[in-house]
Amino acid sequence: MDSFKKILHDHLLPLLPPDARSLDLQSLVEVPEDLSLGDLALPCFRLSKLLRRSPMAIAEDLAARLVLPPAFRRVEAVKGYLNVHLDRRTYARSLVQTILELGDRYGASEFGHGAKVIVEFSSPNIAKPFGINHLRSTNLGACLARLLAFTGHHPIRLNHLGDWGTQFGKLISAFRRWGLETELERLPIPHLLSLYVRFHQEAAADASLEDEGRAWFARLEQGNPEATALWQRFRELSLAEFSKIYARLHVSFDEISGESAYGQDMLEVEQALTQAGLLSESQEAHVVDLTDHGLPPALIRKKDGATLYLTRDLAAAISRQRRYEFRRMLYIVGAEQKLHFSQLFTVLRLLGHDWASACEHVDFGLIRFKEGTMSTREGKVIFLEDVLDRAAELARSIIEERNPELPDKETVAREVGLGAILFFDLHAKRIKDLVFDWTEILSFEGETGPYLQYTHARLTSVLRKAGTLPEQLPDLLELTDDAEFSVLRRLAEFPEQVQRAVEKLEPSIIAKYAIVLAQDFNTLYNLKRFLDAPEPSRTALLALCAAIGQTLRNALSLLGIAAIERM
Ligand code: ARG
Predict the structure, then answer these.
(1) Are residues 161 and 82 in the same domain?
(2) How close is the Cα of 491 to the center of ligand 1, in Å?
(3) Is residue 161 located within the same domain as residue 263?
(4) What pTM, to 2 d.p., does this model score?
């Protein structure tokens, strides 16, 4: 559509008086929903102010004087709009050809000019189960990184493990008291979790335990060998578990580091804060007073000398700017940490780091499980692996029912299960809270991952049956009735939707687009006979089908959902 908007702009500009020529007509042009209103519409209301004539008169004047370029079929003036009807054959041919030629680059752009953007996502806490909120961060972050790459940015995927803090002092103390080597080997994370739970239970009765935990964290921060060795093991065992999850999710990182990496940098942060006169003492703790900024004080060091989450985030941000010189940095973290990030960015600004304004908290809502739909191994905690297993299992039983002859059911089931979860995670505006319901997300109908995958498989099967398409599309691309034309317009929207999704950092825009495109295809498929249509309609329809398939695959690949060929 953009190229047609440009053609319109170029043809209209010479018709305007010189003082109106600075106007960017292209950005004013709209694409009407209603096909009867044409394919492009220029509202003449802005021009009306400039030219001191009524919009109606301007539209009529332009309609009368415009020399139709070959791509346009007709123009008309309707209620202050100049409506343009495209020549549908030209449009269809050029669009379908473009999509098929660009292939998996259709929708991509160089808009980012290679700008480095750090996308920090996933960031689970070691020695704890990888939770559903970390899954959300992982899926959103991986998708945003793909969107950024697709639009010409240079994303740097960073995983900031929660691997430092007082809780590890407690864990060390708990392990020394009750830990079992064999259990740690067998089920590292559940064992560590149970130790942590036990520590809190026993500490409720015996306050000295808390002090013991704090003392162990202090030793850890000072490099005590026993504490360090235990911590190292917990970290490695946790990472091994997380790696399995990342492999299942097909997610990878450019850097996996964690809060523990910034010991030296934290000292420098404190020095800088002191030099800038920002650090004050409050109840023996070191804080930055943020009253002037409407925020509670930022705690930098506790009275027992321990550093904090915020201290580590300050150090990490500064170190990343030094190491990567990023243009932007996105933190894909739940909305419940809003205050933390406000404090972080404010303190960075107070330290004089201009790039603080290039840091953004990309927040998201919570996921709740619908009552009774998920059994948990350990009290209230939901293990992500169980969720993935269960999804694959359910997908498997659906496939067994619908298509028992399918080859390689195992792989398909895994990808459908994963696709269901991914789509669920990405389908709504990220700030919304979601309720996870197994039946709903795995349904082959409605707005779901399996619906997209099923549509893709259906479409590929049509193309498979059709055999190879001619290299050269026929000149007479007969895709001109309204049903076909609206699908074409939908295809043409894809690059703009990609752009919008990146600007708003909203994967849901792509998810919604994929659904409407799939619906469009299914409507068309129910309406038209593809395979036994007479030529040249048959080739035209099949070429359209191939273009839809390509665009759907591009959208699915941005979402991280496997485009399945048979299911
Ligand atoms: N590990 C943290 C948590 O699970 C998330 C870390 C987010 N990133 C950051 N730079 N603070 O809550």
Answers:
(1) no
(2) 38
(3) yes
(4) 0.91
98 within a domain of the structure (yes/no) = no
Average pLDDT over residues 533-549: 90
- Side-chain half-sphere exposure of 173, counting CA atoms within 13 A: 24
Q: What is the DSSP string of 202-268?
A: HHHH-THHHHHHHHHHHHHHTT-HHHHHHHHHHHHHHHHHHHHHHHHHT---SEEEEGGGGHHHHHH
Q: Whose CA is nearest to atom 1 of ligand 1?
A: 162
Distance (Å) from CA 169 to ligand 1 centroid:
19
Q: How many C-beta atoms lie closer than 10 Å to residue 224's C-beta? A: 16
- Helix 208-221 vs helix 188-205: angle between axes, to the nearest 10 degrees? 130
Q: Is the four-CA dihedral 47, 49, 54, 55 of positive or negative sign? A: positive
pLDDT in tens, 193-205: 999 999 999 999 9
Task: State in Å: Cα 123 to ligand 1 middle.
Answer: 5
Pocket lining for ligand 1, CB < 6 angstroms: 120, 123, 125, 160, 162, 313, 331, 333
How many Å apart are CA 162 and CA 545, to the nearest integer? 47
Tokens of 61: 């004047």
Same domain, 335 and 453: no
CA 308 to ligand 1 centroid distance, Å: 12
Two structure tokens written together for 480? 């001109």
Output the furthest CA–CA distance in the chain (Å, rounded): 89
| Residue-number span of the structural domain to which 463 is assigned | 385-429+439-559
Q: What CATH number does residue 483 fall under?
A: 1.10.730.10
Do residues 491 and 551 make contact, with C-beta atoms less than 8 angstroms apart?
Answer: yes
Question: Same domain for 163 and 74?
Answer: no
What CATH number does the domain containing 81 carry?
Answer: 3.30.1360.70
Instruction: Ligand 1, residue 340: give the atom nearest the CA.
Output: 11
Residue 566 lies in a domain: no
Among 123, 340, 366, name the best residue to mutate to test ligand 1's pocket (greatest count of ligand atoms within 8 A of Cβ).
123
**Number of domains composing the chain:** 3
Confidence of residue 376 (pLDDT cuts 50, 70, 90): very low
Instruction: Tell me what the mean pLDDT of segment 83-88 comes to.
Output: 91
Out of 119, 134, 160, 384, mutate this one to test ligand 1's pocket (max ligand atoms within 8 Å of CB): namely 160
- Residues 447, 398 within the same domain: yes
* Alpha carbon of 159 to ligand 1 centroid (Å): 9
Nearest-atom index, ligand 1, CA of 316: 10
User: Directed axis angle between helix 309-324 and helix 338-350, to 10°?
Assistant: 60
Q: Whose C-alpha lies nearest to ligand 1, atom 5?
A: 123
The verdict on residue 19 lying in a domain is: yes
Q: Indicate whether 186 and 323 sit together in one domain.
A: yes
Residue 476 makes CB contacts below 8 A (sequence gap 6+) with 89, 536, 540
